[in-house]
Inverse folding.
């Protein structure tokens, strides 16, 4: 047997062992596809480690390494595609970079439009990285889509990203007719961190009487609160994935820290991981805590008695005045935590999509409940077999449940915009 063949066999054996060792909870969609996909992230992590070693004096080297690696895996978006009626181009809305998708053969009259805000924890992602998804949205709806390239943390901490998005939104709504778009038929769409932006922007736009309100908001497995990092979905995810999977509690806490502070603050991160980031007085008396009441989660989605109940869990927490004084202005700011807004009345009709195997699942459920209670027309769908980020893979056909989620979203927009 040749050396090359022996090495190939060894590599294949190692890959099989690695794939089999990846934790996949019972009920997860297409487990072998998921295992294989997770295993393919091993090489990028090795390259990331090498980059950090070579550039350890550079600020934000780990973040920059991951961006370079994952952005390099995506081909540069083309202006047109054979058989497609959509043309793509890059421009700016009031100085904010956006990637536009516009029908080549346009219909008569003003058409609806989509404003898309990409995910990535406010730290990763770009309009180009999401091109395969946003182009598919434009093609399926045969309408205008603008994907906003807001600036990212940690280089640009809160509220820079939000303000970039808001500036682009305001400019577009005031100039929609230049793109043959009806400003009163615009839908805000975002996934994960982008879902946080879409929700927060929907609130701010509603409050601004000088611009038209969004017609719809579509929030795809959104991150919407930072008060309780031990919701049923956080505990479920931790029990089934640990620090693995696509988005762990540790990932969320690191992203939050980078977005707020421009770095991963070890004190805030470790306190948040244990739900020890809130002042004891807030835990006992703040009206904000009612918004993350775990009893609002449908009973069939709550965890069994082996997990701590919220009241008991909160009573065990000693809390931290020091950490709370640092984060209070952010965690009670609806631009960063849309769930804590007091009055939800009048907000745009909503579709909220959540995944069973996602630590952020309960954020979306709680927000859907608050919107519905305020009289906002709200559709909530939880996909029992899905994991966080699955719609990103929908256009490649890798996961059937991701494709179904995408089709449900398109149908909702078509029927309501």
């Amino acid at each position: 047997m040749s050396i090359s063949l022996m090495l190939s066999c060894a590599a294949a054996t190692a890959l099989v062992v690695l794939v089999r060792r990846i934790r996949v909870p019972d009920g997860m969609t297409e487990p072998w596809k998921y295992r294989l996909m997770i295993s393919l992230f091993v090489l990028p992590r090795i390259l990331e480690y090498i980059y950090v070693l070579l550039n350890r004096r550079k600020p934000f080297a780990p973040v920059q390494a991951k961006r370079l690696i994952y952005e390099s895996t995506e081909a540069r978006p083309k202006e047109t595609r054979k058989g497609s009626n959509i043309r793509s181009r890059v421009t700016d809305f009031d100085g904010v970079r956006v990637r536009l998708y516009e029908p080549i053969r346009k219909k008569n009259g003003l058409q609806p439009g989509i404003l898309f805000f990409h995910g990535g924890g406010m730290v990763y992602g770009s309009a180009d990285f999401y091109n395969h998804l946003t182009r598919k949205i434009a093609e399926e709806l045969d309408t205008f889509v603008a994907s906003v390239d807001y600036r990212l943390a940690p280089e640009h901490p809160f509220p820079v990203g939000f303000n970039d998005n808001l500036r682009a939104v305001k400019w577009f709504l005031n100039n929609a007719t230049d793109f043959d778009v009806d400003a009163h038929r615009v839908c805000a769409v975002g996934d994960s961190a982008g879902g946080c932006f879409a929700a927060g922007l929907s609130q701010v736009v509603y409050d601004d009487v000088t611009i038209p309100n969004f017609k719809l908001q579509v929030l795809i497995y959104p991150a919407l609160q930072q008060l309780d990092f031990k919701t049923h979905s956080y505990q479920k995810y931790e029990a089934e994935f640990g620090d693995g999977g696509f988005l762990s509690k540790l990932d969320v806490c690191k992203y939050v820290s980078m977005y707020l502070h421009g770095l991963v603050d070890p004190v805030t991160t470790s306190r948040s991981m244990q739900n020890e980031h809130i002042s004891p007085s807030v835990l006992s008396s703040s009206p904000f805590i009612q918004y993350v009441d775990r009893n609002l989660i449908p009973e069939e989605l709550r965890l069994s008695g082996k997990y701590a109940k919220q009241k008991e869990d909160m009573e065990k927490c000693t809390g931290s005045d020091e950490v709370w004084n640092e984060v209070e202005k952010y965690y009670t700011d609806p631009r960063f935590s849309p769930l804590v807004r007091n009055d939800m009345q009048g907000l745009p009709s909503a579709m909220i999509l959540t995944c069973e195997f996602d630590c952020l699942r309960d954020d979306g459920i709680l927000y859907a409940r608050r919107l519905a209670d305020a009289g906002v027309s709200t559709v909530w769908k939880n996909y029992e077999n899905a994991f966080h980020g699955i719609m990103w893979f929908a256009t490649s056909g890798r996961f059937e449940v991701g494709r179904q989620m995408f089709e449900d979203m398109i149908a909702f927009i078509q029927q309501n915009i």
